[in-house]
Design a protein that fits this description.
Blueprint: H1 18-26, H2 46-59, H3 70-81
Helix pairs in contact: 2-3
């Protein structure tokens, strides 16, 4: 998502470790664009990026029971990659709540809180610059 290495000694401070740098942004739809690869130039579905970020955040949980198994991770990512995913409903779409830390992104997709535009709301020149 970010296009960054997991550990980058060329960067300074918290940005050296991708997890430490990105984790605060993964659960916030309004801030997620700050960690997205600038080479994407905002041309990605924001809802799909948030779902991918949510599953990444779940994988980072300190509590092993809260981490998704790889079958669930793969299934979620395949649904996002599918060209039909924009037109077909996801599993559990009739639910109304969404907890990105403890719930599977396969559940609770139709929450009013989960409605987002299809791409980053900011033009590329307004996005947070990152030193590469």
């Amino acid at each position: 998502m970010s296009g960054c290495r997991a550990v980058d000694k060329a960067k300074v401070g918290v940005e050296q470790n991708l997890v430490d740098w990105a984790k605060p942004y993964l659960s916030d739809k309004r801030k997620l664009f700050r960690i997205m690869d600038t080479k994407l130039d905002g041309q990605y579905p924001q809802k799909g990026a948030f779902i991918a970020a949510t599953i990444a955040l779940q994988c980072l949980s300190r509590e092993p029971k809260l981490r998704p198994n790889m079958t669930e991770v793969l299934s979620t990512l395949e649904e996002l990659q599918s060209p039909k995913s924009a037109s077909r409903p996801f599993k559990g779409e009739n639910r109304t709540s969404f907890d990105p830390v403890s719930m599977s992104p396969l559940k609770h997709r139709n929450s009013p809180r989960n409605v987002t535009p299809l791409a980053s709301p900011l033009p590329s020149y307004l996005r947070s610059p990152r030193v590469r």
